[in-house]
Amino acid sequence: MINQGTILVIDDELQIRRLLEITLSANGYHVVEASTGKEGISLAASVNPDLVILDLGLPDADGLEILQRFREWMDKPVIILSVRNSEDDIVRALDQGANDYLTKPFRTGELLARIRVAMRHTGEEKEDPVLQFGEIVVDLVNHTVRKCGVLVKLTTIEYNLFVLMAKNEGRVLTHQYILKQIWGMAYTEQTQYLRVFMAQLRKKLEDDAAHPVLFNTESGIGYRFGS
Fold first, then answer.
1. pTM for the full model?
2. How do residues 122-139 score in pLDDT, each as one tens digit?
């Protein structure tokens, strides 16, 4: 089986580590394990994994502290896997640099799908000037969007919002992150702006705006583009 990459699992529960080791190895990933935050940081530095699965309830440190330390020097994808399921915990983790968040108990099929999405663009050095999602084509050079070959007229904010979402396909972006990127720091609490423009994008780009498949709502947290 082709090696799909190295995944570092940081979790103090032996049963979870064993389950992940069996599941990930069976799908072509090389797995390294750590049961503490200190051990996880040491392994990340020596192994340079392609992706990290991080628990928040570690015995020696809060997982958010470990995430923060990772983001000081490492840009590889990090998926949080935790029993904590409050919106505050999820939003904090995503805002501090996590690529995704799954709560325990989890479905292994969903975890594998999230891993594939997170690792899809790992190692790419050059941005493709054209993004394509089914019948939708985004030309990043000419700032145009076409659906089924027909030009879709987007305002500057609509276009910038769409590109931000599209470049982060599969990743949950919090309301605050999107507002900061598109409108600036002064607007991080103005979620009504975001709702209005997201509705406009759905109307212009979804086949059925009432049942979106591109611009998906993560209730109370933010939005995810695509699967």
1. 0.68
2. 554 445 688 889 999 999
